[in-house]
Amino acid sequence: MGARITGDIIESYLTCKLKAHLKLAGNQGIRSDYEGFLLQTRREVRQQAIGKILSKTSRDDVASNIPFTAASLRAGSSYVLDTILEDDPLSVSFDGLKKVDGPSGLGDFHYVPMLFHEANAVGKAQRLLLELLGWILSRSQGRLPAYGIVWHGRECKVTKVRLNPDTQRSERLLRELKEMASPGLPPSLILNNHCPVCEFRQRCHDQAVQEDNISLLRGIGDKEIRKLNRKGIFTIAQLSCIFRLRKRGKRVKRQNQPHYFALQASAIRDKKIYVLKPPPIPSSPVRIYLDIEGNSERTFVYLLGMIVDDRGNETRYSLWADRPEEEELIFQQMLEIISRYEDFRLIHFGSYEAAFFRRMKKTFTGHPTLTKLTERSINILPTIYSHIYFPLHSNGLKAIGSYLGCTWSDPDASGLKSIILRSKWETLHDENLKQELVRYNLEDCMALKRVAELVYKIGEGLTEEKSQPEIALEGHVIGRAEDINTVSSRQKYGKSSFVIPDFEHINSCAYFDYQREKVFLRAGGSVRKARSRRKERRRRVRVNRTITVRSNKCPLCGGSEIVRAAGPAHTKLAYDLKLTESGINRQVIACTCVLHQCNECQKRFLPSRYKRRAKHFHNLKSWAMYQHVAHRISFKRLQEIFSECFGLHVHYEEIHNFKQIMALYYQKTYKQILSNLLTGNLIHADETNVNFQIGKGYIWVLANMKNVVYVYRPNRDGDWLQELLSGFTGVLVSDFFSAYDSIPCEQQKCLVHLIRDMNHDLLCSPYDQEYKSLVSQFGVLLRGIIDTIDRYGLRRFHLHKHEVDVDRFYLKLNGQSFKSELASEYWQRLVKYREKLFLFLRHDNVPWNNNNAEHAFRPFANYRNTSDGMMTDTGLRDYLVLLSIYQTCKYRGISFLRFLVSQERDLNGFHDSGRMRTPKLSLQVYAEGFSSFARNQESKTSQIIYPNG
């Protein structure tokens, strides 16, 4: 007879697969004190819960210790406690069942599962256990319960947990447990947060040390470990060989550093402390080192330990609370102690202290010392985690303190043990237990002081010794992380760092600009001539056309008796380009005006049209924006082109204003394109990120075969897209980003995205035969569909026949059970998106991929390569308006330049004749869109009279 799968084994499996395997094999370990404490707490919760149930329900209506069968459940007791399901190989005990209304195989009622648990909050393991118990229960009562109940915490709180109606996860879990019960290879060893409590902790730790297992590094997740394993990296020594410090970009605004596990592995290998950069910790003459202790539920703090270092004078404090009501009292005492010091820094280790301060803020609102305390408190753990890498597997205070020579009176001292000691003290009120806790807390404060002092010294030492690759502090070798990088044979450009200061000075004198301006210039010759030519004055340009501006109406009184006042004429120059089929000519327009006088009010004035005239006309701005958007020429390069090719001095900041003016002018066109998309029957959607000078944002693209629209959003939240597409009745083609799933329209997921993901994971896991088989079968299915598309196109008449192949594919895989986690994940993904993966089989002209949106992103991606980190959100919005029009013109086969020059804003009605057509001349004002200049063949001087002044 095989091993029985009990509730204890199921709980073990949810926390650690190896633990479940060892228990199924009949192994027993040494139960830790804390695990015994948790079991005792669970028994207490159980007794409280049963007491509450019996206080509300008659004892005759509560069944206990009955067999778990459909017949016994039909009796209809309100509660069923301690019932055991015996179904080989299962032997699962239910803590309790509660009767609720709703038809089932038992009658007009059914049961929901209950759990008694010691934790103060319901976690993922409890939810999974409830789902499994609910699925097992459904097989007897004929109905899956909608929720489960958890009685938890010392206060015995009741929490309803909604159960997932999809039973595939529960079925897979039970199937894996049954396979584990049969002889086979044990699961791979991965240490996790449950290890300090587990009875097999020493066995697993010894095995991990022997294997040099990566999971010895605390904080590295299962996902990261599996990713490394797929690359063939299984040990810390192997991990240490792949560290390469990435150079942070100059435009990156994020200040916090990532944590490199490979660098931590390198520190262990080299037995050296590595530093990414000197840790930024503000100093002060008074440093207060704080460590606090709380109860098991973390609901109140009972011990505050402090060491105050006032310029070398050390004072220690231990503030104790017997009851939760005294928590505020000891905090008040702490504030009184801290208020004695003006310039101080409070240093703690971890986020527990910061959370405690936030909780106390609600009680001590507006307390000046508390405000100052929160401003001057420093959590030193993130600084260590991001900047300093000790040759240790853990960044815990005990590990670092022990490495630096700190000792504890109790060699097994830990936070878990302090919880047990506090629990015993609450029962016995033994003074020895209290003193042991106080001593342990002060020893933690001493360790914190030792760690913080070293961190300060590291920051000061590396700042002073910038040229030294390594320094020695208190017997520890401290190196710089950048020195680990291997030297590449490729030439690297940038500033070199020299060990010898003389070399630094010599190198600074060898730069091109320095030598050209300081050395070669003195020798005369070509360099001096080039410098003098560069300083030549700008030449005056010849005027092509003169426009005289007059007004026949007074802007002040509205009178019409306008005469010319005495005085010289006023002249301003405007610039434009004349675009023809054979080339581009510069146009200089002289706008002249004389002073006007009104005979009715005797006021003198200049026409407002003259004062507001545009310096640059529409053709010039159109050509500049065409070069910038279509060819990605920067504004500074355009300034040079205007100067070299046309003899015009157009500053790059003026060109930047062109973008804003043109974007405003073509807002109507932008909205028209968006309206065309929303009223169509197909939309491709995609998104990408962009970095600004400050912060970052996201660019979304919506496209079909004729229209493209780019939209800027400050975040990746897709609620705006749901609102925008609320009336869309066509098909949305997108990738697998979850924001698209809730949009109320038919959707086709991009199959290219899916096969790329499959191919990437297949390359990373070449020996996963189950996954390879799944991918191969999916490839055969998709290959047949694509062959039909290549032959007949996207026609439903030919494609809907493949729905039989799709059904056959899913039916074949439905009966398979996957041991491979990767294969199981992809199978769930295929099942989840089944209708959205093959929607194109039931429609005409619906693509099976999202390359239309991806192609639309290419011009923006090229623009981002040169402008990322230098843009502002306002400038980007203007650019996206013009880019949307450019891409739409490109999709429709229209010349973007000819559309701009025509001054048309109706893209649907624009007819591209293939010839450059420009409208007639009109004086253009700065706030309006600008016309192109057309030469008047009869006269070079035009008169424009504006009745409105």
In short:
By secondary structure, this protein is α/β, with parallel strands linked by helices. β9 (286-294) and β10 form a beta hairpin.
Question: What do these coordinates show?
Answer:
β10 (301-310) and β11 form a beta hairpin. With 949 residues, the chain is of the alpha/beta class. Helix content is 43%, strand content 18%. Mean pLDDT is 85; it is low at 486-493 and 925-949. The chain contains 35 helices and 28 strands. The strands form 6 sheets. Strands 1, 2, 3, 4, 5, 6 and 7 form a 7-stranded mixed beta sheet that branches. The N and C termini lie far apart (104 Å). It has 5 domains: 5-181, Lambda Exonuclease, Chain A; 286-386 and 393-465, Nucleotidyltransferase, domain 5, CATH 3.30.420; 545-618 and 920-946, no CATH class; 666-750 and 850-893, Nucleotidyltransferase, domain 5 (2-Layer Sandwich); 751-842, no CATH class. It is globular.
Overview features:
single chain, 949 residues, alpha/beta, Lambda Exonuclease, Chain A, Nucleotidyltransferase, domain 5, 5 domains, 7-stranded mixed beta sheet, 5-stranded mixed beta sheet, 35 helices, 18% strand, globular
Q: Could you tell me how far the N terminus lies from the C terminus, measured between alpha carbons in angstroms?
A: 104 Å
Q: Poorly predicted ranges (pLDDT <50, ≥5 residues)?
A: 486-493, 925-949
- The count of helical stretches stands at 35
Using DSSP, what is the number of strands? 28
Tell me what the CATH architecture of the largest domain is. Answer: Alpha-Beta Complex
